[in-house]
């Protein structure tokens, strides 16, 4: 069996979760980075003996449109999939169901699913420091159960997961990253942007119609020059404060 980590993780939180799971499998694994817009996703073809950990963040209770597009370009060929929904301690709403549906459409066979919490990518005070040691222990336990089920053949069906169809509406986050005065035009942000929303010849700007506020440009800027409005972030945090107050648990769903 070959293990694949298929991950969309602009700021690294989702990949931390996926790495804990993949490392626990202790199989040879390959990483497929869904944020890399230069990859030819049509070239990825899997087989029935392959196991794919597909980890995606929840944006407004949905998977990012670009993730769905790139996954649908792949050829699952009945490879076993473990969809992993990562969220910032609010809720994941329809994300897991949508991810399951997209994987099935692409030819994968989801046999288990995980919902995991990681530090919020915009409002870092929510789920700060997660995944932490408690999360790691839970994810290791989940992985052991999934691996055992795959090896003994008990995981055959697509798990029933939370969510609704039609999926909830989400039109994106109104705040967009902007460049400060210390931009050196190094182009790191433009190269790393999953959407190509930062012109390579003018990296001080952001094409708002393309930007999904994934925060990748802020995370990779060597000058720490990119940011979003502190006023808008504070207003958003105030709205989420009550919902995000209590520690949310990671969840496992088995087929």
TrEMBL record:
<dbReference type="GO" id="GO:0010181">
    <property type="term" value="F:FMN binding"/>
</dbReference>
<dbReference type="InterPro" id="IPR008254">
    <property type="entry name" value="Flavodoxin/NO_synth"/>
</dbReference>
<feature type="domain" description="Flavodoxin-like">
    <location>
        <begin position="3"/>
        <end position="147"/>
    </location>
</feature>
<dbReference type="GO" id="GO:0016651">
    <property type="term" value="F:oxidoreductase activity, acting on NAD(P)H"/>
</dbReference>
<protein>
    <submittedName>
        <fullName>4Fe-4S dicluster domain-containing protein</fullName>
    </submittedName>
</protein>
<keyword id="KW-0479">Metal-binding</keyword>
<feature type="region of interest" description="Disordered">
    <location>
        <begin position="153"/>
        <end position="172"/>
    </location>
</feature>
<dbReference type="GO" id="GO:0051536">
    <property type="term" value="F:iron-sulfur cluster binding"/>
</dbReference>
<dbReference type="InterPro" id="IPR017896">
    <property type="entry name" value="4Fe4S_Fe-S-bd"/>
</dbReference>
<dbReference type="GO" id="GO:0046872">
    <property type="term" value="F:metal ion binding"/>
</dbReference>
<keyword id="KW-0408">Iron</keyword>
<feature type="domain" description="4Fe-4S ferredoxin-type">
    <location>
        <begin position="207"/>
        <end position="231"/>
    </location>
</feature>
<dbReference type="InterPro" id="IPR029039">
    <property type="entry name" value="Flavoprotein-like_sf"/>
</dbReference>
<keyword id="KW-0411">Iron-sulfur</keyword>
<feature type="domain" description="4Fe-4S ferredoxin-type">
    <location>
        <begin position="173"/>
        <end position="203"/>
    </location>
</feature>
<dbReference type="Pfam" id="PF13237">
    <property type="entry name" value="Fer4_10"/>
</dbReference>
<dbReference type="InterPro" id="IPR017900">
    <property type="entry name" value="4Fe4S_Fe_S_CS"/>
</dbReference>
């Amino acid at each position: 069996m070959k293990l694949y980590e298929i991950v969309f993780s602009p700021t690294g939180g989702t990949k931390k979760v996926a790495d804990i799971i993949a490392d626990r499998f202790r199989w040879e694994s390959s990483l497929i980075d869904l944020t890399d817009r230069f990859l030819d996703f049509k070239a990825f073809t899997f087989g029935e003996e392959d196991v794919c950990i597909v980890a995606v963040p929840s944006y407004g209770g949905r998977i990012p449109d670009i993730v769905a597009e790139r996954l649908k370009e792949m050829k699952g060929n009945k490879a076993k999939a473990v969809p992993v929904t990562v969220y910032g301690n609010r809720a994941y709403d329809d994300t897991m169901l949508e991810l399951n549906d997209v994987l099935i459409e692409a030819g994968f066979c989801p046999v288990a699913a995980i919902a995991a919490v990681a530090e919020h990518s915009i409002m870092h005070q929510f789920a700060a420091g997660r995944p932490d040691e408690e999360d790691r222990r839970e994810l290791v336990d989940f992985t052991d159960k999934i691996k055992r089920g795959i090896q003994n053949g008990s995981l055959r069906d697509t798990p029933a997961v939370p969510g609704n169809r039609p999926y909830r509406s989400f039109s994106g986050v109104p705040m967009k990253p902007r460049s400060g005065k210390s931009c050196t035009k190094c182009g790191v942000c433009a190269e790393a942007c999953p959407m190509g929303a930062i012109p390579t010849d003018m990296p001080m700007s952001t094409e708002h119609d393309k930007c999904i506020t994934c925060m990748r440009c802020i995370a990779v800027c060597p000058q720490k020059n990119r940011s979003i409005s502190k006023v808008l972030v504070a207003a958003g945090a105030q709205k989420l404060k009550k919902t995000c107050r209590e520690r949310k648990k990671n969840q496992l769903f088995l087929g």
